[in-house]
Amino acid sequence: MDEPQRIDLTYITERIITLFCPPACPEETYLRNLQEIVLMLRSKHGHSYMLINLSQKNETLTQMNHKVLDTGWVDLLAPSLDQISGVCSAMENWLQPNPKHVLVLHCRVTCPPIRLRTDFIQSDRM
Q1: Among the options 21, 25, 88, 107, which is catalytic?
Q2: What is the CATH number assigned to the segment(s) 8-124?
């Protein structure tokens, strides 16, 4: 039997992390993975991390994390340049003042290949 899809956590740099949840990931698995990841983030980074949700609004993320920027980007629609610019500014404003600040880019979608959102946004910081 195939193991259910899980959230993919990738350290792009020491200060930029991406979380990608594949479309086939069941809700129960997503929530369990998310709880484990939040515990890891808190133990490793305390309150020095900010989560940016690059998908539709997600109340669960807001409830589990102390600092969330919820973009509300809609599946299958490209964000506007203003929206992308706003996220890039938020990233810079969070990372620049404190070398201990960590950024977590989250993307959960119902249809592939939206992983490009996290790849595109994180590439701006490289």
Answers
A1: 107
A2: 3.90.190.10
What pLDDT score does 1 carry? 45
CB atoms within 10 A of CB 24: 10
111 has catalytic annotation:
no
Q: Can you tell me the distance from the alpha carbon of 24 to that of 4, in angstroms, rounded to the nearest whole number?
A: 8
**Pair of tokens at residue 8:** 């993919």
- Can you tell me the distance from the alpha carbon of 57 to that of 32, in angstroms, rounded to the nearest whole number? 19
User: What b/e string do you get for 53-88 counting C-beta neighbours within 10 Å, with b at 16 or more?
Assistant: bbbeebeebeebbeebbbbebeeeeebeeeebeebe
What is the pTM for the complete model shown?
0.82
* pLDDT at res. 114: 47
